[in-house]
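User: Teach me something about this protein's shape.
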Amino acid sequence: MDEQTAGFSDRHQSSNAQPLQPARRSRRRWLLWGIVILVLLLILFAVLRPHGKNAGGWHKGQTGDVQPVAVATVHTGDMPVVLQLLGTVIPITNVTITPRVSGHILDVYYQEGQHVKKGDELELIDPRPYEATLAQYKGTLAADRAQLEKARVDNARYQTLIRQNSTSAMTARDQEFTVQQLEGTVKFDEANVRNAELDVMYCHIIAPVDGRVGIRVLDKGNYVAAGQSGGLTILTQMEPISVIFTVPQNQIGPVADRLRKVGELPVEAWNSDNTQKIADGTVKALDSQIDTSTGTVRMRGIFANEDERLFPNEFVNAHLLVNTLHNALIVPGNALQTGPDGQFLYVVQPDMTVKDVPVKVGETDDSNAVILSGVKAGDRVVTDGVSHLRPGQKVSIPDTSTNQTAAAEAQTAETHHRHRNGQQSTDAAKHSNDPSAPDAAGNH
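Assistant: First, the predicted structure itself:
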């Protein structure tokens, strides 16, 4: 009985489990489909959401976003045309003091690095051997002069006798030749005396120019020979001094034309880092030929160098002011952009959108550029924030246009003043073109 009951119970449970398994599988299938549909809906929502947000306003999303920018106003002013060239400080006169006679150095009258004047005695070579030779030549000269005088007296007597027919013509003629011979001997003696006097004079080594004496090669007591290699010291003229620099051959035409017109051009010497001006000078001439190996021509700038800040063989940067353009259209250099069709400016329109305007650029320097065509005075051009701009882009501008115009004009005037009078001031230009400057930050 129990076995029958148990068997019945098992068959009942088995018959109930069979319909439950398809139901569970069906629920799982619907659950998976629901998850897939939910994911698809989320993906569609994410994809379609930007279009839904900008539907009917796509043009606004492209051109209506406001981009903050910094601007400057195109203005007229003076633009100096300056060539920045590499140069070397070269003394106008650089003398290697070389002995012209041999002997021992008796004395040295200068200190190393001392400034001397033309005619100052620098060193003394023992003159006594040359003084003795001079005395010998003077004695010979005196004897020969006495013989010449005696011969002249005899010749005068013979000339009188021959007119009286008291002596032979041959004797009188021989006396004339004797006088001429002794005259030649006296001239030879006089030349020997002058040569000996020069040797004595050369024992006293004299400064040929004003300048600064360098390190001496030999000290007192050393023996020197005439024309000794290396000399005794070097005498360098420091005031004035020159700077030799080279001009590219494609710039020779404007430079030569300007030189012919005005006679001389101003030039400034700046340090090797090109950060500080050292001295002001002038240039009056070009070299006579172009160096074919470098394609350049040399020029020499003359500097007073009263403070001796220019030192021989020093490398400097020469700033040659070739010309000054008056009433030129000037924009900051960082406003210029380069595209496939050339250089252009982003000009702010009255409706606060920007337009790319092709321009023709003239002279440029470190901070400004001359515009030959494309814009006019008073136009506002973008100087900062151009990386995100497109033609037609809306922009916002801090209310600093007046200050920026004044600063830009002041910077141009200061640049011109700097190249005329040697005064450099670029802080105003940097302030006017920097959107992170304190004034601009305050207006933001």
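Now, about its shape. The two ends are 99 Å apart (CA to CA). The longest strand covers residues 315-332. If you'd like, I can walk through any region in more detail.
User: That's plenty for now, thanks!
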